[in-house]
Amino acid sequence: MTDSTSDPSRPDHWRTLDKDLNKLSHIEYAALHVSRPLVGWGISLAFIVLAALAALAITGHARGVAFIVPAAAFGAYMALNIGANDVANNMGPAVGSKALSMGSAIIIAAICESAGALIAGGDVVATISKGIVSPDSLASGRTFTWAMMAALLAAALWVNIATWIGAPVSTTHSVVGGVVGAGVAAAGLSAVDWPTMGAIAASWVISPFLGGLIAALMLAFIKWRIIYRDDKIAAARAWVPFLFGLMAAAFATYLCLKGLDNVLDIDLGHAVAVGLGVGLGCHLLAIPLIRRQSRGLENRNKSLRTLFGLPLVISAALLSFAHGANDVANAVGPLAAIVHIQGAGVAGAEVGIPFWVMVIGAAGISFGLVLFGPKLVRMVGSRITRLNPMRAYCVALSAALTVIVASWLGMPVSSTHIAVGAVFGVGIFREWHAERRSRRLNRSRPPAKRLPEEERSRRKLVRRSHFLTIVAAWVITVPAAALLSGGLFLGLTFLLD
Fold first, then answer.
1. Alpha-carbon distance 334 to 174, whole Å?
2. Alpha carbon 158 to chain centroid distance?
3. CB 308 within 8 A of CB 51
4. What sign does the CA torsion over 274, 280, 285, 289 have?
5. Going by DSSP bridges, is the β-strand pair 350-352/124-126 parallel, antiparallel, or unpaired?
6. Is 472 in contact with 145 (CB distance < 8 Å)?
7. Residue 144 needs a FRET pair 20 to 30 A away by CA distance; which of 285, 313, 453, 477 works?
8. Are the C-beta atoms of residues 231 and 439 closer than 8 Å to each other?
9. What is the pLDDT of residue 20?
10. What pLDDT sits at residue 33?
11. DSSP per residue over 245-290, as a string?
């Protein structure tokens, strides 16, 4: 087809008009490309305003509405940031391994996060973020309210910054840092329970290491028992049902401990017993399913990936449900505390979360995921190390097992640190295993065909730049949120008191 702008039969003024129209079309495309991110910000702003208006409509005649309305806006902002950042840990491996498309992952996560928040979300939440700051140290209800508002806004700002730079961080630790900063600014260093803070600091190291170790051991087991067998399909028929049952047992226990603990009062021993029963049942159901699914598959690694697709999708959905049940309190816990103190006049050790507050948290997490989540989903799923369904399955299973082990040991852990640590564990194991095989092959080759040491060291399977960015963000999360919160508290009390 001849370009109309170069057609000699067309008059000059028509050719000029064609050029001008082409320029206009390029300008329109550029404007659409630039304005696309603004749509997300516009929808987010509208959601925050609607949350504030809903709080005004529901509590319009209540005492302290002047504090509740802005706190609802801050809670909505925090929920958006949790959806944009934290949910990537659940869906990133499934998307990175291509077991789910980005669109399908977002739909499943939005539904499961909302269901977890509304069905099993915290009916009761510690008002001062799990005993970090003593309620008695914040002398008045007004001081307590300013402290909670500063903590909530500071945590949301920090998670927003982390999402912008592409670092998955712990929203729980962000809220903890916010509460610490506001508590210190309001009542001094003595207000903080430092032994509890020490346990949280220890979890920065323990939880990613434990998650990475369990994920690496699971991947080693799959390679040993399935991938490196002569008859891979026969090995898969024997072991994949066992792994499916193990996953079901781990997630049933995980949900009892972390997803349904607000609906069912269950201890670790009973949770493990429930998990074992569910796992055994799923193992027996998976035997004929895997046998039927594996018929006609070729004896190669690519065929094995199809057998891990469904368990991976189920695990991602269950992780999202448990995350919605637990981490919605990070968004609305301080808001619920403010609503409580404005009604009761005193800070309690525990407060109930009103249903309308829970709806703001659930909706905000879903909106944040849909509007801004893909960036961090891609980071966790494909930019740290390459994942296939088997590796991604190890990451998801590691997240559940690590939480169970941590609950047994009584350690506070971050689901974000566990999941990202598991991704790094899989990548580092792949590097070690590839280097080991390379050395073995080099020894069997003639000297002229051996791969140089420098070339082997260059072939890294984990991106170090992302590793350093994420670890740096983890280390400074609590101090950064604390400094932001302390500054906001002092600013709020100076300007408004």
1. 13
2. 15
3. no
4. positive
5. antiparallel
6. no
7. 477
8. no
9. 55
10. 47
11. HHHHHHHHHHIIIIISTTTS---HHHHHHHHHHHHHHHHHHHHHHH
Q: What is the mean pLDDT of the chain?
A: 80
Q: How far is CA 255 from CA 182, 296, 401, in A?
A: 32, 36, 11
Q: How far is it, in rounded angstroms, from Cα 116 to Cα 284? A: 27
Among 274, 286, 278, smallest CA distance to 242 is for 286
Token couple for 226: 């399935």
Q: Which residues contact 163 (CB under 8 A, 6 or more apart)?
A: 81, 84, 85, 372, 375, 376
- Tens digits of per-residue pLDDT, 5-26? 455 555 555 556 556 556 555 5
Q: How does pLDDT run across 153-175, given as a tens digit for each residue?
A: 999 999 999 888 888 888 888 88
Taking the C-alpha atoms of residue 236 and residue 293, their distance in angstroms, rounded to an integer, is 11
Instruction: Please report, as a single letter, which amino acid is at residue 352.
Output: G
Domain boundaries of the chain, sorted by first residue: 38-496
Q: DSSP string of 210-223?
A: HHHHHHHHHHHHHI
Residue 3: name the closest of 17, 13, 18 by CA: 18
Among the residues of 60-193, which ranges form H helices? 65-85, 88-96, 102-120, 141-165, 171-187
Question: What is the amino acid identity at position 36?
Answer: R
Query: What backbone phi and psi angles, to 5 degrees, belong to 192?
Result: -95, 140
List Cα–Cα distances, 381 to 63, 92, 387, 392, 497, in angstroms.
47, 4, 7, 8, 47
Which helix (H) or strand (E) covers residue 326, if one does?
Answer: helix 301-344
End-to-end CA distance of the chain: 73
Please write down the long-range contacts of 276-280, taking CB distance under 8 Å and 24 or more positions apart.
276/249, 277/252, 278/248, 278/249, 278/252, 279/245, 279/246, 279/247, 279/248, 279/249, 279/250, 279/252, 280/245, 280/249
What residues does 192 pair with on adjacent strands? 133
Q: Exposed, middle or buried, 383 (CB in 10 Å: 0-12/13-18/19+)? A: middle
Q: Which helix (H) or strand (E) holds 352?
A: strand 350-352
List the beta bridge partners of residue 350: 126
> Collapsing DSSP states into helix, strand and coil, what is residue 497?
coil
Cα 244 to Cα 394: distance, rounded to the nearest angstrom? 11
The pLDDT value recorded for residue 487 is 93
Check: CB of residue 186 under 8 Å from CB of residue 138: yes
367 within 8 A of 80, measured Cβ to Cβ: yes
What are the φ/ψ torsions at residue 352 (nearest 5 degrees)? -80, 150
The pTM score is 0.80
Q: Do 383 and 463 form a contact (C-beta atoms < 8 A)? A: yes
**Within 13 Å and on the Cβ side, how many CA atoms surround 456?**
16
Residues 6+ apart with CB under 8 A from 423: 92, 93, 215, 380, 384, 385, 387, 395
